[in-house]
Amino acid sequence: MTAYANFPGSRPRRLRTTPTMRRMVAETRLDPANLILPAFVREGIDAPVAISAMPGVHQHTLDTLRKAAVEAVSAGVSGIMLFGVPEDGKKDARGTAGTDPDGILQVALRAVREEVGDELVVMSDLCLDEFTDHGHCGVLDADGRVDNDATLERYAEMAQVQADAGAHVVGPSGMMDGQVGVIRDALDQTGHEDVSILAYTVKYSSAFYGPFREAVGSSLTGDRKTYQQDPANARESLRELALDLAEGADMVMVKPAGPYLDILAKVAESVDVPVAAYQISGEYAMIEAAAEKGWIDRDKAILESLTGIRRAGAQMILTYWATEAAQWLGHGRG
Ligand code: PBG
């Protein structure tokens, strides 16, 4: 009592007394519209394949992908980000399947657009790693290094075929220098001025991508440290950001999300374009695994993790829980 006598207003707990009070003063709100569902579609399967390191997530058939898209729409999710997994034997050094108009990602884009039209923002991962036999995000030079400028030519082709197939947004995730500018030019020159670029502006070389590599059947043996950012660096993110904006990025993304909230906050403070964050496979797997062991409350941990990402400054969050979380939020659990 006496401790507060001179500071009669200093009782923050007054604003925490009831659920309605807490709801009223909450600074951050999560809405289904903030959420984007990343989804995997695999060629040549007739039933969905479970991804063991991501319990609850599957490699979809075209059919189950359509269903997942419809469910996302009903839950109020804003967008879907598609990743294609080609049939065994269809990978090569240049990732040809990634630019084949009948490649799995293009087929999936057409199917999802046919199913949901404009009711979801349909996005495509623009990267070669799912399609190359060496598993790198670009093509290699004679010494086996990822060749930046030769890769840009492949990205330009990918942008065109993905836009032709119906992508509203392309998401270049390969971290090549100059990728946003080259993709913007390719889109503009092929009549796709309205297709936007969600740039993976700040993408760290992260151990937390582990489960994703299973999800896309990655062939990678080494690492991506010559093109993805070093987790030790923060200033470098602002340099990547300035370049992407100058090259014409419509939206920018930070990835992973949870371990990089400081970077997300910095990016969000310094731009006037929409900011996204990608809560990646390892972030998903950690919560699912701890919940499975009974060590944390799964649903609360999911919502808290999403709230933290939103609070740090992400307007859009890519999360494998998008549909489920949107369903909860729609029912007032946020
Ligand atoms: C590259 C790409 C990756 C992810 C999205 N796009 C993997 C990587 O860079 O190794 C990771 C997503 C996740 O872990 O959920 N095409």
TrEMBL record:
<comment type="function">
    <text>Catalyzes an early step in the biosynthesis of tetrapyrroles. Binds two molecules of 5-aminolevulinate per subunit, each at a distinct site, and catalyzes their condensation to form porphobilinogen.</text>
</comment>
<keyword id="KW-0627">Porphyrin biosynthesis</keyword>
<dbReference type="InterPro" id="IPR013785">
    <property type="entry name" value="Aldolase_TIM"/>
</dbReference>
<comment type="subunit">
    <text>Homooctamer.</text>
</comment>
<keyword id="KW-0456">Lyase</keyword>
<dbReference type="Pfam" id="PF00490">
    <property type="entry name" value="ALAD"/>
</dbReference>
<keyword id="KW-0350">Heme biosynthesis</keyword>
<comment type="similarity">
    <text>Belongs to the ALAD family.</text>
</comment>
<dbReference type="GO" id="GO:0004655">
    <property type="term" value="F:porphobilinogen synthase activity"/>
</dbReference>
<comment type="pathway">
    <text>Porphyrin-containing compound metabolism; protoporphyrin-IX biosynthesis; coproporphyrinogen-III from 5-aminolevulinate: step 1/4.</text>
</comment>
<dbReference type="InterPro" id="IPR001731">
    <property type="entry name" value="ALAD"/>
</dbReference>
<dbReference type="InterPro" id="IPR030656">
    <property type="entry name" value="ALAD_AS"/>
</dbReference>
<protein>
    <recommendedName>
        <fullName>Delta-aminolevulinic acid dehydratase</fullName>
        <ecNumber>4.2.1.24</ecNumber>
    </recommendedName>
</protein>
